[in-house]
Design brief:
- Helix content is 56%, strand content 16%.
- The chain is α/β, with parallel strands linked by helices.
- The protein has two domains: 54 residues; 138 residues, HUPs (Rossmann fold), CATH 3.40.50.620.
- It has a five-stranded parallel β-sheet with strand order 3-2-1-4-5, with helices on both faces.
- Helix 1 packs across helix 2.
- It is elongated.
Length: 210
């Protein structure tokens, strides 16, 4: 026991001296990096275990209280992108709110053309007529009025889910993506992280051919 104790003490002193004298030359990896990596991996494992425990279920699927969602479709103007998103919205629900933030001439044009572009074709096809909702934005904010409308609607209708369809342009080059989809990304992030389970965000991609 005495010899083992002396050996352990000598080894410990040697280790400390080497770590101090060779810290800059690479001993810092042993002192700092390796323990940090171990702590990080243990934290990741705890996170996965916590998530798995929270979402684990062994009961059959719940089939009660099913209903069509209220569909919200934000658009800035009428385009092929908006048309594709609206066509998809008709497959989900008969209650569709098309959200447009007040922005001068574009708003006036959309209001003027809405009957011919959407309401008449919908009536002729026997489809539900989408409701055009123009949101005021005194400070020209685009994202906040849309997010606020979605949150207020799900509060007002506690027995319905709210599906927000986000039309997005898909470019052939990845760096062009940054030029077009800043607002959709902001809307998606704010809605997904608001903490409510009854708001669903769906991306509707439109692939550009040029």
């Amino acid at each position: 026991m005495v010899l083992n104790g002396l050996g352990a003490l000598a080894g410990g002193i040697t280790t400390v001296l080497v770590l101090i004298t060779k810290f800059v030359d690479g001993a810092w990896i042993t002192v700092l990096l390796i323990p940090a990596l171990i702590l990080m991996m243990r934290s990741v494992r705890r996170h996965y275990s916590h998530v798995a425990q929270e979402i684990q279920v062994s009961t059959p699927v719940c089939t009660a209280d099913l209903s069509e969602p209220v569909v919200l479709l934000p658009i800035d103007r009428w385009s092929l992108v908006s048309e594709k998103a609206l066509r998809y919205a008709w497959t989900l629900s008969r209650e569709i709110h098309v959200l447009h933030v007040q922005c001068g001439e574009d708003t006036d044009t959309l209001r003027r053309q809405w009957g011919d572009l959407v309401e008449k074709p919908a009536r002729a096809a026997g489809l539900a007529r989408p409701q055009l909702v123009v949101l005021d934005s005194p400070y020209r904010f685009i994202v906040k009025p849309i997010v606020d409308y979605a949150i207020q609607l799900q509060i007002a209708q506690p027995d319905r889910n709210v599906s927000v369809l986000i039309p997005e342009l898909v470019e052939s080059h990845w760096y062009h993506y940054l030029l077009h989809n800043n607002r959709p990304e902001a809307i998606r992030a704010l809605l997904l992280f608001n903490g409510n389970q009854r708001i669903t965000v769906v991306s509707i991609p439109y692939h550009l051919v040029s």
